[in-house]
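Let's do one together. I've listed all components of the complex below, 960 residues spread over two lines.
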Amino acid sequence: MSEDTNNTEPKLIGLMAQFDDPDSLLAACEKVRKAGYTKTDAYTPFPLHGIDEALGIKPTILPWIVLTLGVMGGFAGLGLQYITNAEWYPFIISAKPVWSLPANIPVIFELVILHSAIAVFLGMLALNKLPTFSNPLFRVPEFARATDDKFFLTIDVNDEKYKPNKTRDLMDGLAGQTDVIEVYEDPSPAEIPKIIKFVGIGAAVVALIPPILLWRAYYQTSTVPRINPIRDMDIQLRGDTQTISPVFADGRTMRPRIPGTVARGEWIDPIMLTGIVPDAGKQNVAFLQDDEAPKEGDQKPAAEEKPAEEKPEADKPMAEDKPAEAKPADEKPAEGKPAEGAAPAAQPEEPEPNWVKIAPITVTRATLERGRNRYNIYCSVCHGLAGDGDGLVAQRALQLEQPTWIPPTNLHTDYLLTQPDGKLYNTITHGIRKMKGYGDQIPAEDRWAIVTYVRALQKTRTGTPEEIPAVEMKELEIKGQ
Amino acid sequence: MATVNEVIDTTIDDPGNRTPLVIGGHDYGSITRLVCGINESKTPIAWYVAMLASLSLLGMLGGLIGYLIFTGVGVWGNNNPVYWGFPIVNFVFWVGIGHAGTLISAILFIFRQNWRTSINRFAEAMTIFAVVCAGLFPGIHIGRVWVFYWLFPLPSLQLAMWPQFRSPLLWDVFAVSTYATVSLIFWYTGMIPDLATLRDRTNNKILRIVYSVLSLGWTGSARSWSRYEKAYTLFAALAAPLVLSVHTIVSFDFAVSQLPGWHTTIFPPYFVAGAVFSGFGMVLTLMVPARQLFGLQDVVTKRHLENVCKILLATGSMVGYAYAMEFFIAWYGGNMYEQFAFINRAFGPYWWAYWIMVSCNVISPQLFWFKVCRTTPWLMFVISIFVNIGMWFERFVITVTSLARDFLPSSWGMFEPTWVDYGMLVGSFGLFFTLFLLFVRFGPIVAMAEVKSVMPFPHHNRREEPNNPHGDFHDDPDQ
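Okay, and this is what the predicted structure of the assembly comes out as:
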């Protein structure tokens, strides 16, 4: 192995003894250690038991690295689940608390194992200084059998005890050794060739460009839609709301209802729905086309005609006309749907429509109960359980002295007593002044039931003893005493 | 040197002598030549034939996955009420098989069962490839495969939401991916010294570079071995609870739900026993022919096979006990819905699947009580095939019978697998065997370094000792 005749004079870095069996190697290790050598190593095809003591190898710190990483993995698992599920995106499932440790144990456990295992792997490699592809030992042909069936013992020339001849003699004298080999330094240059360096750096720089561009795009606003390579269901053939359609002449994707049509299942008697008695078939249609601005022209004349024609039919004096006309300015802004209320805001002197005088439903005890139930849910919070306009919301608003608060109407005022049922119903449906419309929340039957219940409430103040049946009067008298 | 020496019957227990783990008069060098010879010899025709068959199945699987992705999960038979059909059955089946490798490497290592050294590499490779097959099915089952990363807790601008960590399905993501990662690095760590052996022996330049890179410059230094062994012990200590946790968590997918037939506390141990059972069944299925084909009878002796058979007998009986216990609890618990679920399982429309499962998993391994069955390779091969079939049916029975007869009788229905379902099941075997054949051809299929470490020392210098202090077995008159 010694090529001393070379011009370059490769530097000797160690001596290596070869053995055929593990016992000889162990004995040799023992001997070398006792001779005081420390920069020694043995090479075996399999882990040899007892060699740690024979060679004086200290226990590795690997378990401590693994413990540290494992504990960190556990906290990472705990933190990940806490941050994501309890802080950033709390899931509420079956009313369970958003943070419940037992359910988080499996993931914590798995992350402890994962982190520990990776620590074992990387820690072992790092402590063994692997990967190391260049090793002077690989240049010794005999060394190829270190992974097969031969055993080697090396002493480094840098060992304090190393003396060229003495160490050589020691190696030669080891029992069972079959060969002593001199190991020389790798003569090939240690430096990476420049061209590889430049190409490597260049490739690294080029490889950085796409992530930088992505990162830049990620944090920038853009006027063009984001790139969506897989569209899933983002783009579909159907027309979306508020978009332009090339199919229809008016360019609208959202189609208006065809005049005079009612959607299947939505038909309801127009009187029942609106609380207004129509004067012609045309009238019905006009009220049903609630979203149709262009149709206003058709319905206005109809609405204007009504009061004059219908008045004679009224079975009660139309005392409400005057107060109603006195208030239009207040009422109209609150009406969200001008066409349905038949009172477009532009016309201050809009005549009253022909209100239904009596609720168009059969009034039974059940209706009244239903009306009370709905009234207590929807109306009583402002108007009060008895209709005095002293609901909890109203009381609270007064307490807080809200400057913009408009007190809810007392349902027992003459103004309301004399209103036809239809108008009351219309107020519930569309709201008035600050009161919002309840048409979307309460079905028509229930709104009529509320109207009936309000009438019953009013009757509690206006009724006369004569109106009470004799039997019940008696009961009341008994109770009164 | 590497002559087959079947004269020694390793299946006989002799209290005086420790039974040898390697027979045939091998020394260190002959073990290296025996194992590396498999990689270095000319590729046998049988390998090409097997590879061609596996690759065709793999190609079919690839085509079917493409068809699935472009068409949608409607190509499967999954439908109301059996939304979990073949994909989950195949997933649990493969993940179960994937338990034997790590179990052999980790748990048998901790118990100092040195016979594991001959089969652990093989079994670990099987584990990795089975987990690959297992991971495939949930991956394609999610429907929109291109957003598979939503399974993981990654910040997403589009969703602005995070996974639900209290769901067993998410635990599954963590358990299976941790298991795959840990098994892979465990397997690879174990292979580093053997890859170095291959590196030092090969004359092929390309293979030499590949093996050099893979073996990371391993020299076999005693200082490296010291840390390596510590690392191996740590791996075993970590992988042992991991292997138990993975199938426990897989069983949570079922047990945490409210469905009668799934909602039982017996599931975690029952699944783990089943996983070990199916894993060892697959080890036997692969080991018996491989041992014959590659002439590994000296390293994988009949005693090794017998030990595997004993484990199969034990775990098969545990699985049988679990089946019985499910019925007992259904009766003892007095819940009529639970009772219905189990009576329906055995005597309902899927009675055939149930009885295939019972006969394959409970009855067939009982043959291993007889020594002749434990020592006759072809017989154990046949039984191991039954075990594989039975364990697939176990998952089918659990998944499908429970779902097909769930809560409302009005929504009951039968599961009808489509040709795509069958094709993917068969195709997953193509994937498994393709990977396995590649490994057998290019990787060290027996852990040489570990086998050498459990071989008797040659004792060149101590031959004069009259009594062998280790009780080690010597049958080679030359030593």
